[in-house]
Amino acid sequence: MSAMADKSFAERIIHELDSREWNQARLAQKAGLSRTAIGDVLSGRRQPGVKLLKGIAQAFNIPLPEVMSWVDEIADQAPDFLDDQILGEAKDMTEQEKRSLLAFIRSTKQMRAPAPEEGSMSVSKFSKVKK
User: Is 94 domain-assigned?
Assistant: First the structure.
């Protein structure tokens, strides 16, 4: 992981802290996180996880997708970052939650399949024509 990616994320957090005149302890309190977790992420000793991102979004009253976009550079620099995050979250899931997640992943992958070219005929098991 590059130091630039960490710094970019940290700079965004620091900018938000400065604009509110908050310190890291206040952010930790508002986010429901430990001061150590905030410090570790800002120093680059730890990658931000979903719980931390949710807490920061809530504390700053910024939509979660926007806060998550702040770590896009980290994900771009470390391709396994998102895989690690997904696997980390899945460890604490129930068996039923894991099955639901797997079904969601499969349906999402099917949605990205290319559409048939215009004018081509596509036969589906769901498109039987009655005569």
Answer: no
Give domain status of residue 122, yes or no. no
pTM of the shown model: 0.53
CATH number at residue 43: 1.10.260.40
**Residue range 40-62, pLDDT digits in tens:** 888 888 888 888 999 999 999 99
Q: How many Å apart are CA 16 and CA 93, to the nearest integer?
A: 32
CA distances (Å), origin 64, targets 25, 70, 110: 21, 10, 26
Which domain covers residue 11, as residue numbers?
3-83
Question: Phi first, then psi: what are they for 57, rounded to 5°?
Answer: -60, -45
Number of domains in the chain: 1
In this structure, the number of other CB atoms found within 10 A of the CB of residue 34 comes to 13
**Domain annotation covers residue 78:** yes
